[in-house]
Amino acid sequence: MLPLHHVVQDDFSAVNDLIIRQLHSDVGLVENIGHYLVEAGGKRLRPLMVLLTANAMGYQQKHHLDLAAIIEFIHTATLLHDDVVDMSSLRRGRATANAKWGNAPSVLVGDFLYSRAFQMMVAIGDMEIMAILSSATNRISEGEVQQLTNARNPEIDEATYFTVIDKKTAVLFAAACEVAAVLTNATDVQRQALKAYGHHVGMAFQLVDDALDYTGDAETLGKNVGDDLAEGKPTLPLIYAMKTGTAAQAELIANAIREGDAGQLQNILAIVQDTGAMEYTLNAARQHVAAAQKQLETLPASDYSKAMFEVAAFALARTF
Length: 320
Prior knowledge:
The protein is an all-alpha fold. About 75% of the residues lie in helices and about 0% in strands. The chain has one domain: Farnesyl Diphosphate Synthase (Orthogonal Bundle). The chain has helices at about 10-20, 30-40, 45-55, 65-85, 95-100, 105-125, 125-150, 160-185, 190-210, 220, 225-230, 235-245, 245-260, 265-275, 275-295, 305-315, and strands at about 90, 95.
């Protein structure tokens, strides 16, 4: 648990208990994989943002706990499917579910988590919340498909890259904050500000994630460094390096993207640093963090809104 979680520690413990209860299934493999994923931990930023938003708005009931668990289930389902698509073997410092149990169980348990999330939404009984989360889930799927079609294509530009990370990452961050705003009867101004806050935090989070693939180490990250390159993903550090580097540097990166080849990783790391691509990527993340923090001016001052400010800063400062 991150220090940021402590301000909602009781709520967070209640969400963890709820997640365990909602993983119940008569099928043992579903529970085995589900518990394996939960025990792996992770930053749990998305459910944290639900809890912080609800508390910042003075919410006194319990449905924010359900929403936090729902958001985590949707996120975990996407991770299960992503790891199969990307053929990943390591996540959060442990073998991925597909590496441990195989692709078919991972996909099907991902489907279970999606459907359980929607069962929980129905129990809340708010059509506006269901509309937000169903739309977000749909857009995440679109983003993942678009990322797949963009793989091994070095011609992808910045605008296309930003569209993809908005859909595959920022959408769920935004939805986490917006559903909490709806739950707490926030004003229209507050709702839009909270949605924008989540969007900007999610964009910064993904930008830093893409930067870490070329600056981190596997032990700290909990995943293999260079995975994006091995999957032929044209992320912003590579897009900018190709645009500003020499013709030879651009061609080396383009060939690595086309081939999905991490064999040139060390040379590409040097190019990314030499061209300023890393700083360019992190500057884009800084702009999103500042924009996120600006949105919080619509909230009353509290320990919760202060923690939300710090969550945005963490999205930039993190090393894992």
